[in-house]
Amino acid sequence: NAGVTQTPKFRILKIGQSMTLQCTQDMNHNYMYWYRQDPGMGLKLIYYSVGAGITDKGEVPNGYNVSRSTTEDFPLRLELAAPSQTSVYFCASSYSGSGGNYEQYFGPGTRLTVT
Amino acid sequence: QKEVEQDPGPLSVPEGAIVSLNCTYSNSAFQYFMWYRQYSRKGPELLMYTYSSGNKEDGRFTAQVDKSSKYISLFIRDSQPSDSATYLCAINSGGSNYKLTFGKGTLLTVNP
Question: Residues of A with CB below 8 A from B44's CB?
Fold first, then answer.
């Protein structure tokens, strides 16, 4: 199993550009999450999904959009990038069925700079 | 009061020292407690998981939960340079809520 994979690893965007951060998991997890991590600020939840076709806002959703058309994929869309969106973005997944616990498995992250 | 408070450090110790990392929380509904380790430029990975008061040991690591004080700790014995990382506590209230509430993380450096 590859676990949770994210692409790209790094990206530089100009203000006003758009991009999609890709996230894929091969563990058949039903829950998926997007976080951003700023220096000294911990992990902030942007959006999460409890299954294909179901998404919900987290703590800091403004400026982002998500979709979940399959169990495996959970892309994060940035529209009209702003310098405040400069951060490291982590995708995570977890399993809520029988035998599951609350552990989340994280991808390696995407480092985004908006200038 | 924030839901989870964690001293961000940084914490610098010599190799072989005992390290104590701590978090406090405000919501008594929290009942699942985790410690994640995050190496520089990597994603967090689960280190310890517990759901009851008391101690849980795994090698050089001990997780301690005191629900009456709303206080959790991670102890690292015989610390090694390879333990240098950021340690994040994460807490969950259980039931149908699968979201984790994270502390801000403590940056630990173990000097050889």
Answer: 43, 90, 106
DSSP-derived secondary structure for B11-74:
EEEETT--EEEEEEE--TT--EEEEEEE-TTS--EEEEEE-SSEEEEETTEEEEEETTTTEEEE
What residues contact A99, with CB distance under 8 A and at least 6 apart? none
Give the per-residue pLDDT at B104: 93
User: Could you give the angle at the alpha carbon of B92 between the alpha carbons of B89 and B93, nearest 5°?
Assistant: 145
Q: Which helix (H) or strand (E) holds A68?
A: none
* Nearest residue of chain B to residue A97 (CA atoms): B96
* pLDDT beneath 70, residues of chain B: 1
Beta-carbon contacts below 8 Å between A and B: 50
- The residue whose two tokens read 């700023």 is A38
Phi-psi region of B82 (alpha: psi -120 to 50; beta: other; left: phi over 0): alpha
End-to-end Cα distance, chain B: 38
The answer to whether the beta carbons of residues B16 and B40 sit under 8 Å apart is no
Tell me the per-residue pLDDT of A27-57, one tens digit each, with 9 for 90 and over.
999 999 999 999 878 899 999 999 999 999 9
Measure in Å the smallest separation between the Cα of B77 and chain A Cα atoms. Answer: 24
